[in-house]
C-alpha cells in the first residue's frame, strides 16, 4: 500500500470498512463501492480521515440526486426516503429473504419485502442496496433515512426513487437502471458512477455540487 496513491474497494460490505480504515490509517485516499460496510463505524472513519489528511470517495452509484441533497442540508432536511424496486431474482440470497423464508419464485405481482431505516436495510440486503448507505451518509444519517424494498416481477430494471423534503422544498428523483451483465444484483450505472468519480479526481474543473 505504500506505493499507491488511491485504494479502490470493489469487493463486499463484509470487508469494505476494514479496507477503508487500513487505507486511511496509512494516509492513503480510498474509493469505496460497498458503502454499506461503512455504516457501523462511519463517524470514527471520517474523523480518522481528517486526522490523516486522507480523502474518502463514495460514488453516487445507481442513484441520482445527491447533488441536490448536499445543498439541501444547509437549509435543513426533514425527510429522506428511498424506494427500490428490483426483479425478484436480483434479491436472491439476501439474508432478509432467507431469514423470512421468502420464496422469490412465487412472487407474481409487486410485493413490499422490507420497510425500515438504512441500517436495517443494509443488514438484510448487504449486496443489493448500497445506494441506501450512500444516500444516508450524504443526507441525514442511516438511522433517519427510510428505505422500502419492493420485489416486482414485471420489471427488468432496478428502479430507485428518492424523495427529500425540507425547508428548501421537495426533491424527487427516479433512476431506472439496467442490471450489470456480470452481476444482476447491482446496476450498470454503479460501474459508470465509479468511472466518473475517478475521472473527477483527475480533472482540474469541477462541475456541479
Overview in brief:
By secondary structure, the protein is of the alpha/beta class. It is built from seven helices and eight strands, in the order βαβαβαβαβααβββα.
Task: Write up what this structure looks like.
The structure is a single chain. The chain is α/β, with parallel strands linked by helices and 209 residues long. The chain has two domains: 6-58, NAD(P)-binding Rossmann-like Domain (Rossmann fold); 66-183, Dihydrodipicolinate Reductase, domain 2 (2-Layer Sandwich). 32% of the residues lie in helices and 24% in strands. Helix 1 links the parallel strand 1 and strand 2. The model has no long low-confidence stretch (mean pLDDT 95).
Beta percentage is 15-25%
- Figure out the total of helices: 7
Helix content: 25-40%
Mean pLDDT: 95
Please provide the count of β strands. Answer: 8
**Fourth-level CATH superfamily of the largest domain:** Dihydrodipicolinate Reductase, domain 2
CATH architecture group name of the largest domain = 2-Layer Sandwich
Model regions low in confidence, pLDDT < 50 over at least 5 residues:
none
Order of helices and strands: EHEHEHEHEHHEEEH
Rg over CA atoms, rounded to whole Å, is 17 Å
CATH topology of the largest domain: Dihydrodipicolinate Reductase, domain 2
| Major sheet description | 5 strands, mixed
CATH class of the largest domain: Alpha Beta
